[in-house]
Amino acid sequence: MKWCLAVVFLLNYFLSRDVAANVIQDRNLFATELFQTIASEKQNENVIISPVAIQTALGLAYYGADGKTAKELQRSLHAQSQSRSGIAKSYYKLLHSFVKPKTTLEIANKIYAKDELVIEPEFREAAEKYFDSDAEQLDFTDEPKAVDLINKWLAEKTNGKIKNVLSNIEPDINVALVNAIYFKAKWARPFMDDATSDRVFFINASETVKVPTMFADNWYNYAEYAELDAKAIELFFENTDLRMWFILPNQRNGLYELEQKLKGVDFDELEKRWEWSSVTVNLPKFGFEFDTDLKPYLLKLGIKTMFTDEADFSNIFHESPISTRVSRVQHKAFIDVNEIGCEAAAASGEFEF
């Protein structure tokens, strides 16, 4: 059962004015493509992903890749116009443009490598410089200990919101690239607690439920998008440039069609059409988490070779005879929206053997 007809985006990318517009558009394009690929197969589930977490993990993998593996990652990330170092630098600007004083937004990356593997110095340096990632040797043969250590690190970096991302690790794992992102902020204009009440919510054209619904009658950025057959509002957070968009289909059963129409949308152009308007808002309180292996969806987006024995990550390991391929890309995300604000977290991990 899909509880929310509003498509929710935390529009990190188009708000990052320090990053070139074409880079932001490329990142948004990958994000919408991945979201659509997942949502089309999860039509009865609430889907939440963190493009920042996923693309950071893939960007780090790309920096360590070569040959066909690197080309597929570069093409699928829509980064053909950038060099390897250029992509790394753009991620650095992107990640650091989000972090503002008085805003809880933390992004962390880590590399766990098998004891006997020597990480290529250039890769280690780039990981630290551009991706804020450090490296640690880990004995993957002690599976319970390795799983516990990685899960504890991810839980710590997400303020305890993302737990038990891993239930197991393949016995022949050589390296794990993991990252975490945590965000918490208050609305610039909070909803009043006493205005929240149970209201009818349409799951589809005919089925309804009653859910706790926040209410406000205030001024917001508002727009109607005929090409999306939808309307939208923008909610501001305190002390940050980050904002949240709520996009509502005009048709009660129009969520799937809206998700498909978002492919390739230029969010900068949509942003230009905001009008400061008096709007009555009925917004359900909601909170959920989503956990999936991204491998089947990345395969559909053309990232294939890194999952095969032909994978080439020769830029990661120094003079290593071991060939590595990615076994899975685990992603777990959480979101909670209430009267005070929004709390969200996500964790991703790529596991190579």
Explain what the structure shows.
The structure is a single chain. By secondary structure, this protein is an alpha+beta fold. The protein has a domain at 7-186 and 287-352: 2-Layer Sandwich (Antithrombin, Chain I, domain 2), CATH 3.30.497.10. The protein is built from nine helices and twelve strands. The strands form two sheets. Strands 1, 5, 6, 7, 8 and 9 form a six-stranded antiparallel β-sheet that branches. A six-stranded mixed β-sheet has the order 3-2-4-12-11-10, with helices on both faces. α2 (51-64) runs antiparallel to α3 and α4 runs parallel beside α5 (121-131). Residues 1-17 have low confidence and may be disordered. InterPro entries: Serpin_dom (IPR023796), Serpin_fam (IPR000215), Serpin_sf (IPR036186), Serpin_sf_1 (IPR042178), Serpin_sf_2 (IPR042185). Residues 32-349 form the Serpin domain. Residues 1-21 form the signal peptide.
Topology:
Layout: E1 7-10, H1 21-41, H2 51-64, H3 67-76, H4 84-98, E2 104-114, H5 121-131, E3 133-138, H6 143-157, E4 175-186, E5 197-202, E6 208-225, E7 230-236, E8 243-249, H7 255-261, H8 267-271, E9 275-284, E10 286-293, H9 295-300, E11 326-337, E12 341-352
Parallel strand pairs: 2-3
Antiparallel strand pairs: 1-8, 2-4, 4-12, 5-6, 6-7, 6-9, 7-8, 10-11, 11-12
Helix pairs in contact: 2-3, 2-4, 2-5, 4-5
